[in-house]
Design a protein that fits this description.
single chain, 425 residues, alpha+beta, Immunoglobulin-like, five-stranded antiparallel sheet, elongated
């Protein structure tokens, strides 16, 4: 009703101002005095009603929770007059100042450690040393990450995960980083947080890869990270399938790492990789050489035994290097003379190399080669002199499995070569 009454008054005043409608004739002094009394009564009623509204509206709003108690007090000069309190009046609640964020122990809450990718890429970070092979090529100390590597030693940001690693109620930022070395590279997972000043600090390194992994359960690559409670879960692989390699040869597993003091330790998942069924692991088990110089000729024998220690069959060949001036009396079927067959071995100038195809060897199979008959001039093999024979075993590179990258090369090269020194009788 109040709005309607004011609207009617406004309409009358507008009509009076623009003169669009004729006004009634005055009714005389008595009518004027009556009109004045009615207007005074109307103003008094409106003023009383507004005062009641100004007092009652905040009280109702406070009671309903619409108006909070944290706002600054109003200027007293602008407050409407307040009637004296009655015995039945309900006092208004007293505003209180807001409390600052606090932890459960009463201290100020820790800073938010969630850092987005753009911020990490734009901020110089303090990185720890890269272990394993990465220590040779990957920078440490202050460094600014890149999104895409362009040069050797570039460290790129590959993935983020948010984990409350220190159980302080706010999340920190786990980052999967890759350092470009050669055609592949090293991987490392690090965790970052913000300090009270808002700067980015390193919490610690979680796990790193090694290009010569598998020993001690080290991964050769890291594929993915994710949060698991207060732990960082890392998907690691036993083989680095780089450079056009078949990714199906990689065995992946998830491992969990948790913060223990200042160090991350593995708290879940397997600690070792199972034997990869695609491995090739050939070994030279033994080499026996003997010989005697009589008159103008040296005559000797070479016996070689190898083993397929891998989990699968493979085509195998054996190469052996005889000292200078020595040759086989008869080259057996399946063997050929080739001075270039073992280019990476210290064969020595003038030495002679023979390569023998063994055919397919099964997992766990031992193979003893026949006795090789050796001859040489006595001048090159004097009695009492010492000579060396080098024997190397390798997997064949001519099978379709190798061409399709379905097999893993023999990477345990320490048992693929044997050098034997013998004394001429």
């Amino acid at each position: 009703m109040m709005d309607e009454e004011f609207h009617e008054l406004d309409t009358v005043f507008d009509t009076f101002r623009d003169g669009s409608q004729s006004l009634p004739a005055p009714l005389g002094p008595a009518a004027a005095r009556a009109t004045v009394r009615r207007r005074r009564q109307l103003r008094a009623g409106i003023t009383s009603g507004l005062t009641a509204l100004v007092i009652a509206a905040p009280v109702a709003a406070y009671a309903a929770g619409v108006i909070g108690t944290n706002g600054p007090p109003a200027d007293p000069a602008t407050q409407p007059p307040t009637p004296p309190p009655s015995a039945t009046a309900t006092p208004s609640p007293t505003p209180t100042a807001p409390a600052s964020p606090q932890s459960s122990e009463g201290a100020a809450a820790p800073p938010d450690g969630r850092i987005d990718q753009a911020t990490l890429l734009a901020t110089p970070l303090t990185l720890p040393d890269w272990p394993n092979h990465g220590v040779m090529d990957c920078p440490a100390g202050e460094y600014q990450l890149v999104s895409t590597p362009h040069s050797m030693g570039d460290i790129s940001l590959r993935q983020l995960a948010y984990v409350d690693v220190d159980s302080d109620g706010v999340e920190e930022t786990a980052a999967l980083l890759h350092c470009q070395t050669g055609q592949s590279g090293e991987w490392q997972v690090m965790v970052f947080d913000r300090n009270e000043a808002g700067d980015i600090d390193l919490v610690g390194s979680v796990v790193a890869s090694s290009l010569s992994g598998r020993e001690g359960g080290l991964p050769e690559q890291i594929k993915e990270i994710r949060a698991a409670g207060n732990a960082v879960e890392v998907q690691v692989g036993d083989i680095l399938a780089c450079c056009g390699g078949n990714p199906d040869i990689v065995q992946y597993q998830w491992r969990a790492y948790s913060l223990d003091g200042d160090t991350f330790r593995q708290t879940g998942g397997p600690a070792e990789f199972p034997v990869n069924p695609m491995f090739t692991d050939l070994q030279v088990k033994s080499v026996a050489v003997e010989g005697t110089t009589t008159g103008d000729t040296f005559d000797g024998t070479v016996r070689i035994a190898i083993r397929n220690a891998g989990p699968a069959r493979t085509l195998t060949w054996v190469a052996f290097v005889l000292p200078h001036a020595a040759t086989l009396k008869t080259v057996p079927t399946g063997c050929v003379r080739s001075d270039y067959a073992v280019q990476t071995e210290p064969v020595g100038e003038g030495n002679t190399t023979y390569v023998c195809g063994i055919g397919e060897t099964s997992a766990g199979q031992d193979v003893t080669l026949g006795t090789f008959q050796v001859t040489a001039p006595a001048s090159a093999f004097p009695s009492g002199g010492q000579k060396e024979v080098i024997v190397v075993v390798r997997a064949s590179t001519e099978t379709a499995e190798w061409a399709e990258h379905k097999r893993i090369p023999d990477l345990q090269n320490d048992d693929n070569t044997k050098i034997v020194t013998f004394t001429v009788k």
